[in-house]
Design goal:
Lambda_DNA-bd_dom_sf; DNA binding; mainly alpha; 49% helix; single chain; 74 residues
């Protein structure tokens, strides 16, 4: 690897690593996972269960009208 005076005595790899660091990035092994599969599985179960209760498009807007239930006759 080159070692230029322009690069403050850092090799090309060290320069590249510094660039990644400045960008807020890091290099990790490709088999690392950034999510917990068990947590995602639980979220998927909850999402499916919530979506299964929906029968019409109006069910999606329930939260928006919940403050006006009496006015709307609920």
């Amino acid at each position: 690897m080159k070692n230029d005076k322009k690069s403050n005595g850092l090799t090309e790899i060290e320069n590249f690593c510094e660039l990644l660091s400045c960008l807020g990035l890091k290099v990790v092994p490709k088999d690392y996972q950034s999510i917990d599969k068990e947590r995602v599985a639980a979220l998927l179960v909850m999402s499916k269960s919530w979506m299964n209760r929906i029968e019409t498009v109006d069910d999606l807007f329930h939260d928006e009208i919940s403050g006006q239930k009496e006015k709307l006759g609920y």
